[in-house]
User: What shape does this take?
Amino acid sequence: MSDALNYLLKARPEAMGHYFRFLKDAGSKLDPKTRSLISVITKVHSQTERGLLQYVKRALGDGASAEEILDALLMAFPALGLSKIVWAVDVLLASGLPEFSLDAVGPAAWHEVGALEALAAPMARIECEGRTLLVYRADGACTVYDSHCPHQRTPIPLEALKGGQLRCPKHGWTFDIATGACTDKGDRPLRRYPSKIEGGILYAEW
Ligand code: FES
Assistant: This one.
């Protein structure tokens, strides 16, 4: 939240409380991904860089792909105009988010993660073509996750895994590592990539 909003919240708590309750209730019938995409558009409209990145990360955490975020921007063209859309894309390209690198443009492709026998069990943290992955191994199968927490994209370290539960160090969102489901504090799962094993090599798709 901006310093100005924090100030107003302290100076006029009742009025601002109504405002925030209004914002919360206004989106109560929408699914989280749609809510996040609409919030992305509002941040582009007001050209708020920090807010844009906050809601783009939230939209990704809610399951939106980079393609869907771009679609949302382009569909809002009549309201935003080309210059604000170009501004937003500049911000995204400079953000370092792997979903918005020039290399990521184009149809999804399989990427070699590594040889199965070289992957630490039960979980490995792997750098793969600009992304950091968590690979969970159990019963001969592998599950590949984005290593970033879906809440605010904090990188989750290997040490966060205890007894099958992965706990984000920042605010404590906790995930069942076997399924990626959020089991405590939060409301969104880990981002999971399709994967396959061929000839003893693990591949992930994005
Ligand atoms: S960033 Fe992970 S719980 Fe908030």
Summary: The chain has a mean pLDDT of 92. Residues 77-94 form the longest helix (18 residues). The pocket of FE2/S2 (inorganic) cluster is lined by residues 149, 151-152, 154, 168, 170-173 (CB under 6 Å). The first strand starts at residue 110 and ends at 115.
